[in-house]
Amino acid sequence: MEAILWQEVALRLLKNLQ
């Protein structure tokens, strides 16, 4: 059930990379 947390982190990382 930590998939949501991982998705949020992934989205933030992607935005930080851009």
Largest sheet: none
Indicate the proportion of strand residues. under 5%
Low-pLDDT sequence parts: none
Mean pLDDT: 90
C-alpha Rg, in Å?
Answer: 8 Å
Shape: rod-shaped
* Helix fraction bin: over 70%
Number of strands: 0
Q: What structural class do you assign from the helix and strand content?
A: mainly alpha
C-alpha termini separation: 28 Å
Note the run of SSEs as H and E.
Answer: H
Count of alpha and pi helical runs: 1
Walkthrough of the structure:
With 18 residues, the protein is an all-alpha fold. Helices cover 83% and strands 0% of the residues. The chain is built from one helix and no strands. It has one helix at residues 3-17. The longest helix is centred in the middle third of the chain and has 15 residues, at 3-17. The model has no long low-confidence stretch (mean pLDDT 90).
Summarize the structure.
83% of the residues lie in helices and 0% in strands. The protein contains one helix and no strands.
Please tag this protein with its features.
single chain, 18 residues, mainly alpha, 1 helix, rod-shaped
Secondary structure topology:
Blueprint: H1 3-17
